[in-house]
Amino acid sequence: MANVRNLKKDINYVLGDIIEAVYIWEYANTDKDTKQSDAIIDEAIETFDELIAKVNAKNVEDPKAHFKAINQELETRGRALIEKINKLG
Q: pLDDT band at 3, cuts 50/70/90?
């Protein structure tokens, strides 16, 4: 992990791209219900807030392991959101 700033950028870019993908799906499928896609956007925003809060946590025993775990969680939750986008009707 290079630094905290890069981790924050990664979180922003990954979740921003996921939200953008949902908007593209909604634009391409204007005839379909957007309740599921809106839920994905809400989940992405919630994930962003949670991960940034973890990055900003001050009392961490092992910072290197802490940031590595956050990076892994970003990857796991990001993949889950992408799978949900792929399953949209």
A: confident
